[in-house]
């Protein structure tokens, strides 16, 4: 199971500690350039295989779409790509986190002044995001920012497992990563991090604006599993994604589901996991 930088389980660096600003100087762009290739090479080296199946959810699909379209050598190592709650553009996002998109410069400046580089949602932030969205939720649900951001489906959630889920999620990321997502909400584009001025962008990219990831270049065969009530992978954004995929093998919309049902849904095995395993077996002739 893959694990990207900056969360609870990935907090070591050869040169920096989590107390250093440099430790947090990244967004999902660096996951695309470094983390995805490192994970894929690690798995292939350990298993002595030449290629693998990639299953991703949410940000795990985002970084895969970018990596497989920008890095043909890595893309050749992927037999099939299964994208659950697929994210590329987020222009139609319905999550209350979209409210942060319009405050991003101020939040980024404030965190910079305070020396905060790690994004760990506070009680005040939860109250801000949840004040208009939690009337139908229990206090327990609203106490965890992941449900405020991604939605809550009581029909698909095992309530007895909530303490376990909340103990592990959200697991943390960098402020720069949150700023990157907010930039995408405002722009509606699947693009690299905007450093805020033409001079800095030119220094990093050789052009005054951040380049976009060209999804039409991705040749990896992909299956999409998307939810009808997804706040983060909105159906309208998913439709834009579908139009750009040249090797789409299947697209399955699951009625009434939301973004978290792919990982915690009571019938996730029946709706998604077993079909995915069957496709894998058929692919290898098993």
From TrEMBL:
Annotated ranges, domain AB hydrolase-1: 2-86
Superkingdom of the organism of origin: Eukaryota
Single GO BP term: lipid catabolic process
Pfam families tied to this protein: Abhydrolase_1
The entry's keywords: Lipid degradation, Lipid metabolism
Name the UniProt record assigns to this protein: AB hydrolase-1 domain-containing protein
Species of origin: Paralvinella palmiformis
